[in-house]
Structure formats: structure tokens, C-alpha cells
Amino acid sequence: MTAGTADTTGTAEAQRTSMPGAPRSLDTTASGAIFTIWQKLQKVPFGNWLFTRAVCFKAPYFRTVHPQIHELRPGYCRVSAPNRRGVRNHLGTYHAIASCNMAEIAAGMMTEATVPATHRWIPVGMTVEYKAKATTGVTSIARLDALPEFGDDPMELLVPVDVLDADGQVFVSAEITMRGLSEEGCLVSCAGSSLHWS
Length: 198
Known about the structure:
The protein is α+β, with helices and mostly antiparallel strands. It has one domain (33-190): Hotdog Thioesterase (Thiol Ester Dehydrase, Chain A), CATH 3.10.129.10. Helix content is 20%, strand content 27%. The chain has three helices and six strands; from the N terminus they run ααββαββββ. It has helices spanning 33-41, 47-58, 96-114, and strands spanning 68-73, 76-81, 119-130, 138-143, 155-164, 170-182. A six-stranded antiparallel sheet has the order 1-2-4-5-6-3. The longest helix is centred in the middle third of the chain and has 19 residues, at 96-114. 37% of the residues are buried.
């Protein structure tokens, strides 16, 4: 991790491109089981809440920040969480590691919705910049403006995430590196490392 200070005037709505080349439309038809479950639950009452609870059951550490997933589609995920006493530091502000947890939830779910069903993924690195303090509830947004082609060879996908306070100011920025492999070329160490439910 790298720490530093920076201007907090930017918001998550600023366009960020994670891959070189011209953007192309994102295809949802090849997405895996998790995005399919998300789409189905959009048709039932409290679908987002049920989906989030299922994610936290699969990955229990996410429960520590009490997240709520609001939007999910290939290339995008938005998650919110309250500012509870359990996620505060000694200064009474939102803890840095809780912010990292929020960043990983958004990045992980966005990756699940983006990577085709023929592939698996695992996070292999995270770089974080702590820009300011937060005393409110928070929102994490993972966004890709363009996607690479997914093939049989291993590849790495850099996922940018902004964590915002209730005023829309970015107080933490993160970049999470995801390594993707096709099912046929998936390493033994990769098996079961994602939230792949199919």
C-alpha cells in the first residue's frame, strides 16, 4: 500500500480508463453465475438485500462493514455502508482497512459481473491512497470504461475503485489487480478463490 495526501475535490463520477485503447460496449451475455443471480433477484422484493446477504455468507469478512450492494453490471458496481462504531479508528473516523474492505467488495463483485463464465479470477495486489478522513457513511464505486478481450492466456485486469463520503468526496482511492484465467488453464491455486458459484 502507498499512503499520501491529495485534493479531495474529485468525485467518483469522473471518467477513469483502466485499459489502453478505445472503449467498447460491455457484453453481459457471457457473464457468470453471480451476475445471473443478481439479475434474477432484481425482480423480487428486497432483491439487493438478499443478494448482499448471500455474498456476505460466501465471504464472511465482508459482513464487518455491513455493506449493501446497490448497482451491479459488467464494468460497474456501487456499494454503500454505514459509519458504525465498529469500523471507526481511534480518531473516530472511518478506518482505513474498512475502506479497503469496501473497495474489495466493489472490485470483486464488478469483476464477477464482468469476467465471462469461461474464466476465474483472483486478486493479486492492491494499491491504496488515503486522501482524507471520513465521518459519514461511505460508498465504494468500481468502474471500468473498457474491457480487454478474454482469451486462454492468463491476464491481469486493473480495477480502479473510489470510496466516497456522504458528500460525494473521494477519501480513498484504490487500484486492485485481478488475475484472470480461463477454466481450462486455471491454476490449482486459483480454484475456489473467487466467489464463482456455478
